[in-house]
Design brief:
Helix content is about 70%, strand content about 0%. By secondary structure, the protein is mostly helical.
Length: about 260
């Protein structure tokens, strides 16, 4: 690894951690329909604004031992966790895409996925502000980015959204109950707009496997059996990230195994 590469890894990690700090604000405020810009970050217990030196990504939480400097209220470990995750993912985006048009798209993509993941975990909703705008941005990016093809992105939207919509419709026919939220449908369509239709089978399969394992564990803990409800968005997001960072080879091999010539 060259010294220049090391420099870029550090830059993108720091940039990601900074955006992770802002992402924490979005995760908390957006579902509550609060402004994500004003007021500045503050302690939700004593309402005191947090000084800039107490708002340094990752470090401030550990320096303050996860507590508000004024009132001593505890801050969740999620704050540095989101910042670390975002920093690592941004560095990985650089590793896999280099300095390119695709890098810009990947950075926007993982930023949105991380925020949607934690909002879904908290509230079991996937905000349209990210999913619908993500579809539009993904299609526009495919039209402008010489490294991507627009039809791949368009088919990704139709295949991703269409598959989950069809599954949800069949589930409703047989059970008369809603089994898949509309947010999940839009999320997979957004994923298809960014990574293309070839990624959809891999994302569905990997997210289903991981989600099933987590669901079984949750069902045993909650003792609710098949009635256990878990958000599916985080596993779709994880499947998309796995595809971005090394899963393409597996996905294309799997696709070529069943549909030779299409990959």
């Amino acid at each position: 690894m060259s010294s220049l590469d090391t420099f870029y890894y550090i830059v993108f990690f720091v940039f990601g951690a900074l955006l992770g700090s802002f992402g924490n604000v979005v995760i908390y405020r957006l579902p509550r329909e609060e402004s994500v810009v004003k007021p500045r970050s503050y302690c939700y217990s004593c309402k005191t604004q947090i000084a800039w030196y107490d708002n340094i990504p990752i470090f401030s939480w550990f320096i303050l031992r996860g507590k508000c400097r004024k009132c001593g209220a505890k801050f969740s470990f999620r704050y540095p966790l989101v910042e670390i995750i975002m920093g690592v993912l941004f560095a990985l985006c650089y590793h896999y895409a280099g300095i390119s048009w695709s890098l810009i798209e990947y950075l926007l993509f993982v930023f949105g996925l991380v925020i949607c993941t934690f909002i879904d975990l908290d509230h079991m909703i996937l905000p349209d502000e990210f999913t619908l705008s993500g579809i539009v941005i993904g299609l526009v990016g495919a039209a402008l980015n010489p490294q991507r093809e627009f039809l791949d992105a368009l088919f990704g939207v139709l295949m991703g959204g269409g598959f989950l919509w069809g599954m949800a419709y069949l589930y409703w026919i047989f059970t008369k109950q809603e089994g898949m939220g509309g947010g999940d449908i839009k999320l997979l369509a957004w994923i298809g707009a960014i990574v293309g239709w070839q990624a959809i089978p891999f994302v569905i399969m990997s997210s289903a496997i991981i989600g099933s394992v987590v669901g079984i564990v949750a069902a045993r803990k909650q003792k609710a059996g098949l009635k256990t409800v878990i958000p599916f968005g985080p596993y779709l997001a994880l499947g998309a990230i796995l595809y971005l960072f090394g899963g393409q080879t597996i996905a294309l091999w799997y696709l070529d195994l069943f549909l030779p010539g299409l990959s």
